[in-house]
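re: the backbone from monday

yeah here it is again, tokenized this time
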């Protein structure tokens, strides 16, 4: 599917306050806003033979990222699947109407979550890791397409 801005799926106040309601959103919405970091880290962990990077999008003037995705050789994996990274950045920049910095993530999941106020898997209504693995399996990695 084509790249879609994460902000299209931004959680409502009730979805932010109630983890069960947030959990019940469709997979694309869940992994676009609220669990994007879980999907990105799951992607990296699912392909240990590939040099998968992790990148955060931070809007100009903000301290914490609003979206996280996995990268591989110019490709980005987020809730919309694998798309050219420049397209993922472009749709998010256009939607937000602000400059977005691309910030590599070097910390592990726990360190990233602690630093950037994101939830660890055990802080969701249910364990999001099996859901992330299942969702990820629906996307063909670019190395299987371009090889």
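seq for it, each position gets an aa:
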């Amino acid at each position: 599917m084509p790249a879609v801005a994460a902000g299209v799926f931004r959680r409502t106040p009730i979805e932010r306050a109630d983890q069960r309601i947030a959990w019940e959103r469709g997979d694309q919405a869940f992994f676009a806003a609220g669990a994007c970091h879980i999907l990105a880290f799951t992607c990296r962990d699912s392909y240990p033979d590939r040099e998968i990077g992790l990148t955060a999008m931070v809007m100009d003037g903000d301290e914490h990222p609003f979206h996280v995705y996995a990268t591989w050789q110019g490709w980005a994996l987020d809730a919309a699947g694998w798309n050219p990274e420049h397209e993922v950045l472009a749709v998010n920049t256009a939607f937000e109407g602000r400059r977005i910095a691309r910030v590599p993530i070097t910390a592990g999941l726990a360190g990233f979550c602690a630093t950037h106020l994101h939830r660890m898997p055990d802080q969701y209504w249910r364990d999001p890791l099996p859901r992330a693995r299942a969702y990820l399996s629906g996307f063909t990695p670019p190395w299987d397409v371009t090889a």
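Residues 15 and 25 are 9 Å apart (CA to CA). The longest strand covers residues 53-59.
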